């Protein structure tokens, strides 16, 4: 055998050997998206998923998460996923902030895209999902990823989309001859009649400020326009602009007129829903996510099928329907995951199990969460003939202009000042105008980068 033929034979033998080893490792199949080629250890390892699916109102959401966890564990040898349940407000404002400050967030965690994910990503604490979404061919499948996109990279995924509007007792409306209001003035006429009948017009609980601020946010966006909140951070608009003040003063007026239950500052979120379920109140401003409560006999009892939904009406009948609509709440992933191939592989499989059309439609049908992924309206309608969901689908279709919630657009310290302020307005300790002057001072300091 001459040297040339020997070299060719050796090269062929090496190539065949490499191919044989490769086949033995991968089982003769190429790795699928989200799968890692190469030898996979079955040694035990653990990951933590921080979630906020706490309480009866979130039991359906928790069931879906549990299913995703089981499927991910089954697909990853040696993996055990530990679920860590924390109240949403505690997680957002205390627990996760502390963990991020220490540089040790959970592997997977509930997070708001804006502003939190951007801040954490800036510190290098969140996993860049952009290449993973490209690998899984998911990047273009979402209605929006804007809240989780920072400097062109994606740092989290929304679990669903939401709108905010008014739930109401349909039999009571029918008994009194009320129609769905077309203007704020008509809504006030209905509220006045309800109050005169000895009932609470609007269920409300304000122990956590974000709950009443749903109404406040929608009101100032009607009076000042849906784009006004974008300008606070840039300085193009101010909290003290006359129309913003007018919107917040309308909320204050409703408090003074007795549209809400006395003592609302001492009541938590569950109390608000109970006011509507018990018949004490007739209407309630809340997010579309709350619909699952009113479709569950264990929680709503005889009111199942008796609760309707409509968008908060505009100031004038011919004005556009303006509604808070966003996809800002979801899951993020620790940047440390990228250092561990097994954990990174598990994250990819978790994403594949959680974000697909089947799970999004199940989330809609079983929990009433509007899909975060692109979905034909006809497909959504065919998912459920539940009358409350049909009302929400109609409300979604009727929106002319939408905007994200204010806390996705302003700095954390501004959110804190506004939260304190709205509770003081509700308690009668300060007027809306003076409160907004304080918020504007904090806004200007935040904009200037001052403490």
UniProtKB/TrEMBL annotation:
UniProt cross-references to SUPFAM superfamilies, sorted A to Z: Periplasmic binding protein-like II
The residues that cross the membrane are: none
* Lineage per the UniProt record: Bacteria, Bacillati, Bacillota, Bacilli, Bacillales
What protein does this entry describe? Extracellular solute-binding protein
* Species of the source: Paenibacillus campinasensis
> One Pfam family name from the record?
SBP_bac_1
Q: Superkingdom of the source?
A: Bacteria
